[in-house]
Every structure is written in C-alpha cells, then in structure tokens.
Design brief:
single chain; mainly alpha; 1 helix; 0% strand; rod-shaped
C-alpha cells in the first residue's frame, strides 16, 4: 500500500493536471468564440453592403415602374382623344 503522503502527492498532481486541462479548454473555447464573433461581424458588413445595393436597385426599379406607368397613362389618354 502507498503511504498517505504519496497519495496526497498523486492527488495534488492529478488536481494540477485537471486544472491545466480546464485552462487549455477555456482558452480554446475563448478563441473559438472570438473567431465566430469576427466571422459574424464580417458577414454583417457583407450583408449590409449587399442590402444597400439591393435597396438602391429597388429604388431604381420603382422609378422605372413609375415612368412606365406615366407612359401608359399618356398612351391611354391619346387613344381616348
């Protein structure tokens, strides 16, 4: 049988190893969270830029629709005259 001091030493070593594993795991998880946060920021910027382009295209299309509606109305007035 092992002596009590040896058991305490083994228990302390096991505790330090467990603590080291926890610190490494925490560091790894923190890095993953930072990477995901940066990825989300990048995607947000990309989507905002795409959204701005689409909003501009929608505005242009609305203008074209209004012009076409005006032309149709003008042609209908000419036909009725």
């Amino acid at each position: 049988m092992l002596e009590v001091s040896t058991l305490y030493l083994l228990l302390a070593m096991f505790g330090f190893v467990l603590l080291g594993i926890l610190v490494i795991h925490h560091h790894n998880c923190t890095d993953q969270v930072c990477r995901k946060r940066n990825e989300i920021r990048r995607l947000t910027v990309d989507l905002s830029a795409k959204n701005a382009v689409l909003e501009e295209q929608i505005a242009e299309l609305k203008t074209k629709i209004n012009e076409i509606d005006d032309q149709i109305a003008l042609l209908e007035q000419r036909q009725q005259s």
